[in-house]
Write a structure and sequence with these properties.
Chain lengths: ~290, ~290
């Protein structure tokens, strides 16, 4: 006990550091090692060293990868873009006091804490072309029923809708916190100068909220790029490969095809990409740190 | 609302204008409540639909003309627990979430305390990285290592992998918490003869209980919801609820009522927890995005 007290920093930090090294850093190194090999996971055949050829194949001879990358960015762009606009709308709507303010803030939390797989299942039923509620609604309105996830041209969009439904509340709540922290004085000055509501919104609220908007957008983008649960459970990347993203392609290559070397090279590229976006986020935060 | 004209007789022009303004304001407020109601409906509808369908027979679900005209049945819930053994998966989910949260707290609380008190920013950054890196990057090495060690089929790989989900949340919530905690109390405890470890255990830890509970709840929910890690690291016996519900889909024809009952079983605990501790959860989810 005496020894532990004399080395109090190490005592407090070492268990967590050992855990992180064992569960995170070693696996990343192992994945990088495998990315230079061909291996099916067999215990009898050791990984065969092939240099950078997995990477070379990924970028030059694997159109499925390029498509998955493009889809990942399209999905993220649509989802996060819509979440930002709708989230800002919801934040402005519920900003300030009204009857049931706290209840509303609690209830809109539910989509983002609910289990994604269960949400995927509920939306599968809503999207079901024959018995689903959405087509029933469309028929009642005399509109043509949709194929939703069954059509390869629109499936990715409908998956993005689920993500938008699930994560718009988070965007709204972050922006709401940002709105609450805005200074009063500029608004009083604007009122004296006779600025109308729209002018106050575009000339004051948006610029003042800008750091929060960027931070929330980047935070959401990092997560949206990694979306796996709803895509894999609702479409498994289909129909065909129409909704396959980097994450689901990597999973399928690793745990359905057992192309562990090829999958590892893909995962290292994915890892680097996410880390790049995150570093951008961290640098941005440092620069605008005071406002966040 | 009645206006007392007797008092303000000569200024009828002004009062007309005031009356108009009041009407305008009442209209705006009514519009706002209507918009809030629509927003709430959109965010809650999939849950309500899920709940409604879970009490319907397959025939009633297929009938989209009479949505509310059906005799509620508990058959789906009975099936879920008897035919599909959901009780076992429920217990697995609970055990994994509770154990991974507990161990994450044991590792994370001292680390967060040390990061805050000794300004070990580098460690804070590493723990944040665990939140950012795509989880799939670790999965191939984990799967290989845990298979070799013969641990697939036990709860060990599930608890360890879920800790990597919980630990970053706990660390980030608690670093902020300990940074705000005044150091004087610990110092006076040390003057009274407490060791550094004693000062943490008897002074800082009890004072930080609200933060500990918050972060524990967030870690529990994220473990409960986790799909990808359990998909690879669980076998038939150690399956958690998200995997069990996903396996529903692989049956030839989808038992929608059962699927929705299963979705309710998995979502309900999370939703109930959230209703009680909502204000802490926003803080947990945005950890790292906003300060405090």
């Amino acid at each position: 006990m005496d020894f532990l007290n004399r080395h109090v920093r190490a005592t407090f930090v070492l268990p967590a550091v050992i855990f992180v090294i064992a569960m995170m850093i070693v696996p990343i190194l192992y994945t990088s090692y495998l990315s230079l090999h061909v291996w099916s996971g067999s215990a009898r055949r050791a990984p065969e060293f092939v240099g950078l050829s997995n990477y070379e194949r990924l970028f030059t001879r694997d159109p499925r990868f390029g498509d998955a990358v493009a889809r990942t960015f399209v999905f993220t762009g649509i989802a996060v873009g819509a979440e930002l606009v709708l989230g800002l709308g919801v934040a402005l709507l519920i900003n300030g006091k009204f009857l049931g303010h706290n209840l509303v803030k609690t209830l809109i939390l539910l989509p983002m804490v609910a289990t994604p797989v269960a949400i995927g299942m509920a939306w599968l039923l809503l999207y079901e072309p024959n018995i689903g509620a959405l087509n029933a609604l469309l028929r009642a309105l005399n509109l043509p029923p949709q194929d939703f996830l069954g059509s390869s041209s629109t499936a990715l969009l409908w998956l993005a809708v689920v993500d938008i439904w699930q994560w718009t509340p988070l965007m709204a709540l972050i922006l709401l916190a940002g709105l609450a922290a805005l200074p009063e004085e500029p608004y009083e000055a604007a009122r004296v100068d006779g600025a109308n509501t729209w002018q106050r919104f575009t000339r004051l609220t948006l610029p003042l909220l800008f750091p929060t908007i960027i931070a929330a957008t980047l935070l959401r983008s990092i997560d949206a790029l990694k979306t796996f649960d709803i895509i894999y459970t609702m479409t498994r990347g289909g129909p065909g490969f129409a909704t396959e993203t980097i994450n689901t392609y990597g999973y399928i290559q690793a745990f359905e095809y057992f192309q562990l070397g090829q999958a590892s090279s893909l995962l290292i590229v994915f890892f680097t990409l996410i880390l790049g976006v995150s570093l951008f986020f961290i640098r941005f935060r440092r620069r605008w740190g005071a406002a966040l | 609302m009645t206006t007392n004209y007797a008092v303000q007789v000569p200024r009828s022009a002004v009062s007309l204008q005031a009356q108009q303004r009041r009407l305008h304001r009442a209209l705006l407020s009514a519009l706002r409540y209507a918009a809030i109601a629509i927003v709430l409906f959109i965010f809650l509808m999939p849950f309500l639909w899920m709940l409604l369908s879970s009490f319907k027979t397959q025939v009633d679900i297929t009938n989209t003309r009479n949505i509310f005209n059906f005799t509620p049945t508990l058959e789906n819930y009975q099936n879920v627990f008897q035919q599909y053994e959901f009780l076992r998966y429920l217990l697995n989910s609970f055990a994994v979430a509770a154990l991974s949260t507990l161990f994450s707290l044991i590792l994370g609380l001292p680390a967060a305390y040390a990061i805050a008190r000794f300004r070990l920013q580098w460690l804070g950054m590493i723990l944040l990285t665990a939140r950012i890196v795509p989880g799939i990057t670790f999965l191939i090495p984990w799967f290989i290592i845990f298979s070799r060690l013969g641990l697939i089929g036990t709860l060990v790989p599930l608890v360890l992998s879920h800790m990597l989900v919980g630990l970053p949340f706990i660390a980030w919530i608690m670093i902020a918490f300990y940074e705000e905690l005044p150091i004087e109390l610990e110092e006076s405890a040390k003057i009274d003869g407490a060791t550094p470890i004693g000062a943490f255990l008897r002074v800082a830890l009890p004072l930080s209980m609200p933060g500990v509970i918050t972060s524990a709840i967030v870690a529990f929910i994220f473990s409960w919801n986790n799909f990808m890690f359990s998909l690879v690291l669980a076998d038939d016996k150690t399956r958690t609820l998200p995997i069990a519900i996903f396996n529903f889909l692989t049956y030839a024809s989808v038992d929608w009522g059962g699927l929705m009952a299963a979705a309710v079983v998995i979502t309900l605990p999370v939703l109930i927890i959230t209703l009680f501790v909502q204000r802490y959860i926003v803080r947990g989810l945005t950890a790292g995005a906003t300060k405090g």
